[in-house]
Specification:
The protein is built from six helices and two strands. It is mainly α and about 180 residues long. The longest helix is centred in the N-terminal third of the chain and has 68 residues, at about 25-90.
Amino acid sequence: MLDLGLTKMAVIGVVALVVLGPERLPHVARTAGALLGRAQRYISDVKDEVTREIELSELQNVKSEFVAAAANIENVIHENLREQEADLKLAWNGGSTASPDAEQAAAQLPLQAPDVVSRRGGVATGPKRRNWRGKQAATPTWYKRTAARRRHVQSTAARVARQPSTYPAGRQGFFNV
């Protein structure tokens, strides 16, 4: 940018005053200021646009790298799954690629889960779901809080009996002072 100091600006102002005259100088100065402001705004807009384009290209590069990494991870996972599936099929069909320690551990595992006797006398098939219907029909606590309904209704006599007395212990009646 131009290096304009105070003395150079003063010389330019005196020359403009002599050339243009005192009548036209304010109008020309306003016009020159408006044009300079427009030029600065245009330059800043261009700079912002260039910066946005650079950031956009950088983001697209990062996005493409991320997509490539995700595809690579997906391929590795699928490859591992195919290997595990092949191993399982081989083991299922009679061949074994597992280590002898794993075979011994598998041989020691029980084939059936122990039977659990239920309260009704039969054999239970799984864990009992307690109060399932009660939980399904229960009103959610967030609704209770937002609806602002009393959950525990007390009579007036019970509330009075529950609250401590506000009067001292020595006072018996209204007129006792």
